[in-house]
Amino acid sequence: MSTTIRPHAETPAGDQPVRLESREERTHRLSVGVLVLLVGVLLAVLTLSTSGTARFALSDVFDEVQLPTLSLPGLPVVVLCALLCLLAGAGFVVGRLSSRLRALAGTVAGVAFLLGFLTWAAAGRDLPFPVSNQLSGTLTLATPLVLGALCGVLCERAGVVNVSIEGQFLTAAFTSALVGSITGSIPLALLAAVAGGVAMAALLALFAIRYKVDQVVLGVVLNLLAVGLTGFVFDQLVQPAAGELNDAPLLTPVAVPGLSAIPLLGPVLFEQNALAYLAIASVLLVWFLVFRTSWGLRVRAVGEHPEAADTVGISVRGTRWSAVLVGGVFGGLGGAFFSLAATGSFTKEMTVGNGFIALAALIMGRWHPVWATVMALFFGFVTQMASQLQTLSTPVPSQFLLLLPYVATVVAVAGLIGRVRAPAADGVPYDKP
Amino acid sequence: MAERRGWAVPWRDVLITLLAFVLAFVVGAVLMVVSDAEVSSQFAYLFTAPSLALGASWDKVSSAYAALFAGSLGGIGPITETTAQAAPLICAGLGVGLAFRAGLFNIGAQGQAVVGAMVAAWIGFSWHLPPGLHLLVALAGGVLAGALWAGIAGVLKARAGAHEVIVTIMLNYVATGLLAFALTTTAFQRPGRTDPISPVVDWNATMPRLEGTRLHLGFLIALLAAAAVWFLMERTTSGFRVKAVGLNPDASRTAGMSVPSTTVLAMLLAGGLAGLAGVQAALGPTVAGTPTPLSAGLVGSIGFDAITVALLGRSRPVGTVLAGLLFGALHAGGLAMQSQAGTSAELTTVLQALIVLFVAAPALVTTVVPFLRARRASLTGTTPTTGGLSS
Prior knowledge:
The complex is a heterodimer of chains A (433) and B (391).
Chain A: E1 5-7, E2 20-22, H1 23-46, E3 53-57, E4 69-73, H2 74-94, H3 99-122, E5 129-130, H4 131-157, H5 165-183, H6 186-210, H7 215-238, H8 242-245, E6 254-255, H9 265-269, E7 271-272, H10 274-292, H11 294-304, H12 306-311, H13 316-343, H14 354-364, H15 369-391, H16 398-417
Parallel strand pairs in A: 3-5
Antiparallel strand pairs in A: 1-2, 3-4, 6-7
Helix pairs in contact in A: 1-2, 1-3, 1-16, 2-3, 4-10, 4-13, 4-14, 4-15, 5-6, 5-7, 5-13, 5-14, 6-7, 6-13, 10-11, 11-13, 14-15, 15-16
Chain B: H1 11-35, H2 37-41, H3 50-73, H4 76-101, H5 109-126, H6 133-160, H7 164-182, H8 217-235, H9 237-247, H10 249-254, H11 259-283, H12 302-312, H13 317-341, H14 346-360, H15 362-368
Helix pairs in contact in B: 1-14, 3-4, 3-13, 4-8, 4-11, 4-12, 4-13, 5-6, 5-7, 5-11, 5-12, 6-7, 6-11, 8-9, 8-13, 9-11, 12-13, 13-14
Protein name (chain B): ABC transporter permease
Membrane topology (chain B): Multi-pass membrane protein
Subcellular location (chain B): Cell membrane
């Protein structure tokens, strides 16, 4: 898009053509570089308050196979990590790195920051930092975010903006808690969650595709409608008989036989609740659906260029309807997490903005199912880390630690992700000419 | 959407809007009947004794709506309660609407209102200035805080291309968290209290009000803000630039406008207006005469309600004032409905959503209401738009 094109300083030996770097790329590279430098400076400052050894517990006390607790000398590790970050940041700013080296520098900086920060936090504390807890908590917290982001991927790839993931979550949490309480059956409760999510998705599709309502408006309104409807019915019907109508069965962690005995990874990956397994499977399924089936090709076509898709005989409205409804299935499953996996009951507005965070993961993941999942995991990781650090009694006040995931997201969006491009026809209703 | 010329009243739009209200209330009534076990059980006898079922339904619905009406418009007290509820909604709604017109989806009005309320309240209870000046300083502080908070999102969008939806969502959480933290510090917490609540704001910083009612200066400020936004958008170059960038950033760039600085400007203004909404919550007197002290829930969900206000008001100042008054009335009446008719105030949330939904989908209204169908051919897009959000 930019008009100024600066020649890249990179002049590798030989007769390779000189690569040009657009202004956008340059801004992005510089902002990443400055961010990494700042992180390095932060770590350097933290060295002043680092003392003693940092211990990382690789396994829980309850695990069968006990791994040793890792001990790292606090100060040298933090100093090393700070230097690595500064070096990588300088590399980005100077811009003399090939793209492969740049990816390496980015990875090194990320790992160094994480290691340095955790070492600082754990150095000299009474308790070791629980690594396996951290990882399994990440997966648990990310479960609804992953499912919500997948819902968004399907809708938005087809050209329907979905701001109402939150509303789908809330409705599904309500229906699954209600049905689960009445029947006492988890499969039926999950079905009810899917039904709730699909019902909200149908409203989204009806008004976005049939009545061509501005989709951002629609999403906000559907969220409000979900809050109102679930809240009203909860107050009028469920609350007076909470014993029978708001006591759903709870999903318990299921250990995969054999695999769960693997040290460290076993308890993390293979002792989760059914929804977490479903979420992992869903990522693969959605990736396959979107990128490896003809239906997925159609979905992407109507999201990028509906006129062209229409010309070759694809039903734009039909494809959009199907994508939004399939998305609703995942939105519903994500909602079930709150009532069936987290609490076993419904409370008003219990999804507390997770739908919006899923939306953020979707945008940060550039509308790609796998990257959106990575972003959801990132958010889950930072959230879990914040609560783990609270138990270590770091000098940072606990209220600030709770803000960490949100601040980290802002920093990541501003510094690392930069400008993202939505599917071209995202949010544009299709008028058949 | 074409700009309307002159002062011609768009009767068709007015009619559709009114019908949207009627439809929303009808759906609300159905919901009330269905969710009331006692009333809906009467429907078993619908064919043998229809008066039982219909009578019970009528009693249920009419008592709820009567309480809703009485609580919002039935007398001076309720009417001033409506204006008091509407004032912050109008201010924040103006902010969200202004950002919409610049093509920005500002979900962050909530966070901006929270920091606005925080700073205004802090100046209100910890500084001690002469009458008049104190209120002015507190007001300016709150507006500035809101503007700067939104400015973060504006600058990140303009400089790094960070999506404003993500940044404003996250800043909402950060603002709420900061407030929770501040209320545990000595600067904010009321001496002698262990719960997170601040001292009462000085009398000098309290907005003056009509004695015995809830009509206070805040409502006047909200109307003035609406007039100022109208003037800005329709009569100044900056406003023109904001609208142009919202309609087509590429064309604006070609025409020599700076899209980044317009983005920052729009976010600063939007944040200032949302901050003003926070100021209203912090400095507006309650029935007792003093403002509610700062606590975690003081701002409520003003910032999120403001989005629907802006949508219903189609991001125009006059529309936003009307929509703010309507939702203010629903809020005021909802509380009365809950206490007097035993119907959950959540019903007003449903009504709010349905009204916006039906107003946004005129084609649905004409499908449901038969006599409008004949003129369907002349139906023009009256859908509120949010501008170029997908960029």
